[in-house]
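Feature request disguised as a bug report, sorry. It would help if multi-protein outputs had a clear separator. Right now it looks like this:
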Amino acid sequence: MVEIVKDQPDLLGTTVIFDGGSFKRVVNFYRGWHPELGGRLHQGLQGQETAVEREILRPIRVFRVTENGSNNHQP
């Protein structure tokens, strides 16, 4: 069976708004108007653009739990 994947919008650029510890907030700019992405539609330098604001959470620490229940810290 062949799965048809819808074309992804053309990414123009990314701007970091805030970066602190494990939390990061970025804005991705896509060429054209894409209301399905839930962003702001505006007329930008490259013509019609969609600006989508996203939050990214990164893990600070990762732990491995073994059979005996001890925790081993992984860098």
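(second protein starts here, but nothing in the output says so)
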Amino acid sequence: MPAAAAPKETKSSTPRVSRKRKSAAESERVVPWKIYLPESIHFRLRQLAYERGLKLSEAAAEVLDRGLPFYEIVRKDRAG
């Protein structure tokens, strides 16, 4: 009589983190810019993204959006 097969193990026993739905403000056009970061900043950014369940680029956008000032561009009419 053949031996009973052992149950298959899954790749990971931890549940996946569900992604948050993007708001209207977060759905801006995304351009693949390249920036160079020191290794220590990259590590901290990666850790923040992991803790919040975000992609690295989403965490970077969140941090930069919070830290950078907002500028208002006012154009004067050339005809007047």
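Even a blank line would do. Unrelated, but nice: The mean pLDDT is 80.
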